[in-house]
Amino acid sequence: MAELQLRSVEKVYGGGFKAVHGIDLDVAEGEFMVLVGPSGCAKSTTLRMIAGLESITAGEIRIGERVVNELVPGKRGIAMVFQNYALYPHMKVTRNLSFGLKLRREPKARIAAATARVSGLLEIEELLDRLPKQLSGGQAQRVAVGRALIKSPEVFLFDEPLSNLDAKLRAAMRVRITDLHKRLKDEGRPATVVYVTHDQVEAMTMGDRICVMKDGRIMQVADPATLYERPANAFVAGFIGMPEMNLVPAVLTRDGDVPSLTLDGQTIRVDGLGHRLSAGEGPVIMGIRPQHLAACAPGEPDALTGEIVTVEFMGHEVNLHVRLGEETLVAVAPTEVLRARPLRGDRIGLRPDGRRLHVFDTTSEANVSLAPND
What we know:
By secondary structure, the chain is of the alpha+beta class. It has two domains: about 5-235, Rossmann fold, CATH 3.40.50.300; about 245-360, CATH 2.40.50.100. The chain has eight helices and 20 strands. The strands form four sheets. Strands 6-7-8-3-9-10 form a six-stranded mixed β-sheet, sandwiched between helices. A hairpin with a 2-residue loop joins β4 and β5 (about 65). It is elongated, with a radius of gyration of 25 Å. It starts with a strand and ends in a 14-residue tail after the last strand. The relative contact order is 0.12. The model has no long low-confidence stretch (mean pLDDT about 90).
């Protein structure tokens, strides 16, 4: 395996459209890096540039000690798993797995041993004599992973490999792929992985680190817990987490060490925020996750009072959509709250956890409530 480095990588298409804006990214040897972002953010374009399927306009891509800008895909030491599996339809699973090794003219004994090892790792031994059309979606995806794994590449590239599977199978395959990555590391054969997805749940559950992208730029690279707890900007804050973070305009004022936020004419003092703030008084964007808003009686001190417009029963919890003037906040509450029968049109209080509340600049959208040692 090898580390992967991108330095000031750009992609400009004909007509002058700039898809990738000088991104820098380091993927350590054996790391599982996930590129995530909305459609059109250039995550797949970035992956294809690493693979050599797209040329780069500027910058440098390095795999291990080699600069691979001018190398064809077959010379880069990569293996790629595609969204549509890309299996050879006329070849049985055994030949699909071993075809790359045969092209490299590996000895038959080595090919047989590698096929047996990979099929055992992925639990597809019973599929070896089948054609791709005889496989389910999950089985075909395991074969596609095996075909990449058998080549022992320096870097594995996954381009939304689970998007064609149903929700239950997608969850099972997430576990299988991350477990395989850990097993290879435990066996002393760590796999360097770059994995592209638009699904933030997939990203959060699979990645050692996650690279969040928007409009061809990197917004933040961090481990899942850091992205969730310390988002660098409003985009990351709103993209990571389910339900998504509440982001609403507010006005920040200070009274000694305890700041206050005013929205919809309501002012709340926010303990636990003052020592983190690097912003002065004035308009800001307040960010609070639905899980960090506690339901309380309307009119309680340092709580926001609004009208319930929707109650979503989720099983062990409920999502309360509460309107405050022109803004709506979502709060996650335990199912027990339904004993009080909150109904559409009822008034309710929401108390934010000041330790978990974020403040973002209205112009740059940068998080101005991150203390260095917080």
